[in-house]
Each structure stands twice: as structure tokens, then as C-alpha cells.
Amino acid sequence: MSTVTWNTKTRTKLRAAIERELGEMFAKRTAAAQAYGSEFAHLWSLAAEHVLGGKLVRPVLMVETYDALVEGATQSAPFQRSGVTASGVDQLPPCTDRATIIRLAAAVELLHYAFLLHDDVIDGDLVRRGRPNLIGTLLRESSQRSERAADRPDAGSTPDPRALHWARTGGMLMGDLLLADTHQIFARAELPHAVRGQMLDLLEHTITESIAGEQIDVGLCDGVIAPDLNTVLTMSAHKTATYTFELPMRAAAILTGVPQHLERALTAAGHHLGLAYQLQDDLISTFGDHEVHGKDAFSDIREGKQTAIISYARMTSVWPSIEADFGDPELTVETGARMRALLTECGAERFVRGLVEEQATALYEVLASAGNPQSIPPAARRVLLGLAAELEERRA
Amino acid sequence: MSTVTWNTKTRTKLRAAIERELGEMFAKRTAAAQAYGSEFAHLWSLAAEHVLGGKLVRPVLMVETYDALVEGATQSAPFQRSGVTASGVDQLPPCTDRATIIRLAAAVELLHYAFLLHDDVIDGDLVRRGRPNLIGTLLRESSQRSERAADRPDAGSTPDPRALHWARTGGMLMGDLLLADTHQIFARAELPHAVRGQMLDLLEHTITESIAGEQIDVGLCDGVIAPDLNTVLTMSAHKTATYTFELPMRAAAILTGVPQHLERALTAAGHHLGLAYQLQDDLISTFGDHEVHGKDAFSDIREGKQTAIISYARMTSVWPSIEADFGDPELTVETGARMRALLTECGAERFVRGLVEEQATALYEVLASAGNPQSIPPAARRVLLGLAAELEERRA
Fold first, then answer.
1. What's the domain range around B27?
2. Which of B125, B134, B183, B231 to mutate: most A Cβ within 10 Å?
3. Which three-class secondary structure state does DSSP give residue A381?
4. Total domains, chain A
5. Within an 8 Å CB–CB cutoff, is residue B37 touching chain A?
6. Residue B138 and residue B46 in contact, taking contact as beta carbons nearer than 8 Å
7. Same domain, A125 and A225
């Protein structure tokens, strides 16, 4: 087997294959939806546009890890997962069918988008990465329709409550449909029975943990759950790291049938990476140059988002000076800048940068055991190092 | 095999078995949820209470139909579904394991409750059958907590927006979890591969159709979709009949492996029954004695619900007299009574009663082909007749 090098060309081809799979799925669903009326078909075609416009980070990570583990295994140890044999041939991974791997990777993207949709419904968000999300698109269409009907072009910026309700319901129902589709793909994957069971276990664990994380996030935001640092860190890991990093890497481990200690090492690596990314995101939102990161400056402070930065600041003497304006939707740029300076001054910025450093170090420790025969094989280490390099770039 | 008679005792035992299965599932989930904090575990235990307080109509129907089809098949034709054999033994249904049947029936109830939860989030409902639903319960708890915190006992009836947000998010997330669990049970059912595939097809069809129906219902309510009679009837069938009647009966057909023409006959019977029940529900809400049906009098008129009754009235000359007050949340009892009289006067009541009669007749035609060797076997007819009798009682 030739050595897989994750150059741009290989990744572009892989992304194209995942896009093709997703495109075909959505085309089928949209065609079948016609039987239930034009609004239902339209909802499917909008969802297709939004999913296919994504970066497909998670499915790409899954397949890259799969390929790296296959390469590593053929170079060193054979596939040897206790209790699982792929049709009795221990030298082959339990899943070698490229179509199945690509379909499962596409399912990982559907799950991500289902979570995004329900997250947007819960947060009342209409925009993602500076463009209208699915709900925002439905709202704009519906508002334009009622303005035309009422012959009032551009009736203003306050959305009609009925149009908003219609749009949010669309996001909610499409999230349900894609959550169902994710399960259908996992359930029907052509895999040995025991391996399909492991994939279903992984899906169940991922969904439970991500939803538990979302519940804590909302509880923090609604003042139901106390925002202590441990809770905020746990929430960050559960809500994002679990499905973004751990799910793709563990799926690859299961599909290649590598030994379980290797799956555990990948899980640990995914956890450290995921938490580091999330904390780095919080740092960028709060302290970064908004012209570079492209988000609204001070949006986290304005929304009253309970981040690790804020949890640390709460424990310091400057908190009373921050608290009064924290979560004020009318926050001015001046107050925002003053609060940002206080968050640096009280040590919160330094503390969270230290947490990112800790997670990065923990990741490198997982990677460091190169002499250990049970360590992550070199090709898979390269995948993780690629992600670590992106993290370091964001830290710079 | 002894003849199954659906007396009260048999049904009570069956319901107890389904309750036990659901109870065990929720107990496991609640225990595992502790790892994610007390709020997550509490959400699971509340969901358990609400699900176990239900009537379990759908899972009971599924198992009763299963038993009736098994009895019918052993009395007359053998199990013979083209392309499917149960371990090569054509005289046995593809699923004879009672635990599997009960678990799948429990999954049908989880799906029902997931739909109810998301429906309640969409409609903003806090009450079901006169008692707080899951969202209402979470809201009450959360409001009491913040009143205690603010030392303002019983701070009034306007709910705190953050408490409401927290409560609705709980309903949404639990709906997601139970939708996932339904799929997990279908995906892991110990069935021959082809039969599990059929069950997954059925689940996919049911979810797509129910969600399409929900979207139309919301579109009617939000004024995005025109409330013509055909659309309203289609919506009623998709939103309710598909998962309440067709899903349990078709699942039973698949698990017993009866010929496909029999599954089609059961699907047709389920469709007619489901639509008749829904239309009868609309009649009862609008024209029934609210002291008997237990709902708020005129709630459908007050909410502006687009029923077949209203669609018919729209086509008559009295509509302008109804339209002005239709959907008025402040509707008085006097105006409500006047509108009800107009809906009778314009022929809408008679028309919808005629539709119920049509669906009942269509059901009896499916049952009537007793001499036909391909007809529904007597035991399964008795299950359908039991449901038809309940319908007739509601019509009386």
C-alpha cells in the first residue's frame, strides 16, 4: 500500500468524494420530499446547500485517520482487535469498502449539521459565519413573501413572529430528519455485526455526551447551573470535542479494527485537541482582532457567554467591575474594550492560555511515546500533528 | 397456539410488560446520566415519569396485532413473505423472541413521546391532558428555584424568559435523545438482516411522513401554506395516522412475516382508522361537551387551528362572519358559541361527520373481504374491530 501523504490534492479529492456522497443523499431526499409538497422539498434543498457549503472538517478527519491507521497497521502490527475478526481474515480491517467508509463519514457531517440546527434554534441564531443560516434563509424568504402579499416592500427589520416561528420550526424539523438519517446510515452500514454494534455504541455515546454538554451550556446561560470553572471546561469538552474530534477518530479506529489501546490513545488525543481548540476559540473571540477572526467584536461578552475566561475572572477581585456590563446587549465598544483589559489584568487571559498549553502538552505526550510498540503509528501521528499545527497557528 | 382474546386482563399484562421494559430503559439512562450532572439525570427521570404515565396505545396495538397475525397465520396460511425466510423455517415468523417484540414496541412509544415533546416546543404548549407536560414541569421547577433565590414566593404568572428557555430546551434535547434511542433499538433488534432492513425502512418512512405532516400543520398555522381541504386532510393523515396506526400495524406485519398484500391491507386499515380518529377529535373539540372531553371549550377556534371543519367553512358564505374572531386568543364564551353555531349552520359539521363515516366505511370494506383467502385473518380483524368500536363510541 502506498504511503498516504496528506497534501492538498489528496484532501481535495477526498472532500470531493464526501461532497458527492452528501449531494446524492440530499438529491434523493429532495426528490422523495416532493410527494409531501413544495415546502418540504424546498426545506431539503436548502439543507443540502448549507451542508455542501461546509468545510467537512469532521468527515475528512475520519477518512484521513482511517487511511493513516490502515497504513500504520500494514507497516507494523496486524489488525488485531479482540473479539472482532473481519470475515476471519485478521490481516484486513473489518471495513475495506470505500463506499461504506465515505457514507459513514458523510453521516458524521449530517450529525454535525443536525446539532448546528438545533443549537441555532435554541440560541435564536439567524446567522452563521456572517451569512444567514438555514433558519435565517427561511425567515428572509417567508418575510419577503408576506411583504409581497401585503404589498409592503421591505417592511422593516422586525421579523414577523409567524415568519420567525415558521423558520425556526424548519430548523428544528430538519435537525430531527438529519439526526434520523445519521442513525439510518450507521444502522445499515455493511459491516460485520460486532463492528456495526461498536459503531452504534460510539454514536450513542457521542450523542448523549454532546447533548449533555448542550444542556449544561444552556443551563449556564439561563442561570440554572453555576458557572464554576470545572463545569465550564466539562461543558466545552462534551459539547464540542466529543463529536468534532473523538467521534471521527474513534470511528476510524473501529473501522480499521486497531487494538483498543490505540482507540483509547486516539480518544485521549481527540479530547485534548478538542478542548484546546474550544479554549483557543474563546480566547480569539474575546482578545483576538475581530477583523482577522471575522466575528463581531465582544460578541461573547455581549451575549454573556460563560467561558473559562469568565469563570476565572469570577474568582478574582475585578469581577464586580466586569459583572455589571457582562451580558448587556447594548454594550458599547468602549465598555467592551475596558472589560477586555480587565480580563487580561485579572489574569484570566493568561490562565486560559495556560490551559491551552496544558492540553497541547498532553496531546504531545500521547504522541511522544514513539518507541512504545503500542503507540499511535506514524501515519496517524501525522494526521494529529496536522491538527496540532493548525491549533498552534491559531495560538500565534 | 391458544386463541388470543383481547380481554382486559390480557391487555393489562401486556401493558405491564411494556411498562417494565420502558422502566428499565429509563432507569439505565438515568443512572448513566448522573455522570453528566444532576440536571441531566433529572431530565431523564422526568421523561421516565411522563412516558410511564401514558396509555401506551401504540405499543399495545403493535403487540396485539403481532399476536393476532401469528394466530391467524397458524390457523390458515403459513408465513410466506417473498424474499424473506426466518432461518429457513417458513412456518415460523421471522421474530419469535418476546423480549425483542416488547423492546421494539417500547421504541414505538419513545418515538411517540419524542414527537410530542418537539410538538410541544413548536406549539409553545406547557400542558397536556390538563397537567403540566415535561416543559411545564421544568418551567415550574425552575421558576420556583429563582423565586426562592430572589426570596419572592409566587412571583406571579408571567414566566421568567430564562426559565422558559431552559424548560423548552429540555423538551427539545430530550426529544432528540429519544429519537436517537428509537433508532438504536430498531438498529440493534435481533432480527434476520433483511427483516431489520424492513423495520428500518418503516421507521424512515414513518419519520419522514410524520415530520412532513408537522411542517404542513405549522405552515397552515403560520399562514405560509394555504388551508385548502385537501392539504388539511393530508396533513392530518401524515401527522398522526402514520405513526399512531400504520407504524404499529406494519411493524407487526413485518415481524410476523405475513405476505405483503396483508401488510398493505393493514396499512390501508390504519390509514382509514387514523384519519377517522383525527377528524372525530376535531369534531369533539369543536362541537363536543367540554365537560366530557376535558379540553378547554373553543380551544381550537381560539388557537386558529386549521381543521377540516374550518377548511369547509372557508368555502361557504358564512366564512366572513367567522373569520373576524377566528384565532382570537381573547375569544369570549358567547362569541365561541356563536361561531360554533355558524360552523353547524354552514354545513361544516355535517360535512366532516360525513368524512368520518367515509373513512369508517372504507375500513369496514377492508375488513369485509372475509371470503377472500388474502384477507386479514379473523384474530387481526378483531384488533381492528376493537379500535373501530372505540371510534364508534366517540362518534356517539
1. 17-54+98-189
2. B183
3. helix
4. 2
5. yes
6. yes
7. no
